[in-house]
Predict the structure.
Amino acid sequence: MLMGQDFDTSAVHAGREDFLELGVHAAPLDFSSTYPIPDLEEGTASLDALAHGAADAPQKIYSRLNQPTVSRFEGALAKLEGAEHAVAYASGMAALTAVLLALRVRHPEDARPHVLALRPIYGGSDHLLDHGMTGCEVEWVSAEEVARKTRPETRLVIAETPANPTLKWIDLEKLAADAQGAPVMVDSTFATPVLQTPIAHGATLVLHSATKFLGGHGDVLAGIVATSDEEWAAALRHVRVITGACMHPMAAYLCLRSMPTLPLRVRRATETATELAEFLGQQPAISAVHYPKADHPLLGKQMLGRGSLISFELAGGYDAASALMKAVRLCTPAVSLGSTDTLIQHPAGLTHHVVPEEERIATGITAGMIRLSVGLESTDDLRRDLAQALAVAATAAPMQANLTKAGTPIAETNPAAQS
């Protein structure tokens, strides 16, 4: 980002710095899978450099090693995150897998690298961390336990803020201090660099499911990790070369297309979400609304806005949630988030269904919880759609149910409240 340049300006111009020289007005899209090697000796040296994590080399060799359209997107996202590097992957899950595998590149002496992970986190991430597939020793902790649980051999601390799906915020400066020198990786998908830049608050790595806000239109699958640590960046590229978890150039092109409108989309959706959260808090069919408060101590310090995700709990539990999912007409009942249209989904039955039930309950993911990713529609239209769907849900399930289908108790006297 140029000195004094506003974020909105950078969002428009990042990745376009050489357009005048190239004589183009849209990002070049290179579909090549392989590249000519006019000089064998230089080609061999380039292959060696790229295969071991170099960002560039005199010859591209092969698109798994170096892809110009993907590199352009990486440079643009790094600028918005205030990072020196970014490494893109085929999906957000591929990006997280690469981070965990990079621990083996950086610490080959460790039989099982020790990782602290904070719940709640995206269900797919939880599943990967809990599975053991990557060979890491993963210890689940709360933010308050990080300082006590960090060991000299702890290689990584993983957190998601805002958390999926409870929307709780984590103080990143405190987390980095409590990590006592261990690198901190933050999944900042919900915030985007419009609302939060974790590296400025002590994080080493910032992960995005670029499928969400960065792509922004529900038509791309992608992931990316930003960092200012050169050794981490090299290790992440090394893993990508070996595993082949590459972002497709078309995906990179679509993300570049979406970057100029990112600030506009995020801020507009946040404005609508703020109004909808207040509306939802007044509905008798809802027992709790989870949306950051206007006086949250991290607002204005770490987060520059409250975001466009809302979670709320239905007093009728699972049956009410199921009925509401069927009753919406404008909101799209689908997983994912950050699209131009409003998406509504049931975490316990969908995105977080792979998380052990006892862990879901412990972190506040009830069977009556609904997650709403607010889009760019009219606030009034969204309010009307939710109102009619909530009326259906209230009729379909008793509001004073003692148990949900999943066996999760429903609080009978829990007033709608923001958290």
Remarks:
- The chain has a mean pLDDT of 94.
- The two ends are 35 Å apart (CA to CA).
- The longest strand covers residues 154-160.
